[in-house]
């Protein structure tokens, strides 16, 4: 099945807002989402990401990451797929997202 276009509230690179990005990645649940997506070889559906919260609450966290520009979401059939916008983030804020991911991984080994 073909990938659909981006969600309508996903910002273009020129519209990234750094304080909003910082707020989005600072939440512990969203940190878990980032870490799992960073370790994946391909896009993951929302249901494939293990979170200790209800689906409706998870939707809120995915939305916050998408609206901040950290996450790209698209549909394959009825599955909402998730990818980190690594290249876009690198263009806007070089080194930021890899540094966040490295810190999350280092912190999980403590």
Automatic annotation (TrEMBL):
Gene3D superfamilies attached to this UniProt entry = Winged helix-like DNA-binding domain superfamily/Winged helix DNA-binding domain
User: Is rRNA-binding one of the keywords?
Assistant: no
InterPro entries recorded: ArsR-like_HTH, HTH_ArsR_DNA-bd_dom, WH-like_DNA-bd_sf, WH_DNA-bd_sf
Domain of life, per UniProt, equals: Bacteria
- Report any Pfam family annotated for this entry: HTH_20
The answer to whether keyword Nucleus applies is no
GO MF annotation terms: DNA binding; DNA-binding transcription factor activity
What residues does the HTH arsR-type domain cover? 20-98
Keywords (A to Z) from UniProt: DNA-binding
Q: What is this protein called?
A: DNA-binding transcriptional regulator, ArsR family
Per the UniProt record, the source organism is Arthrobacter alpinus
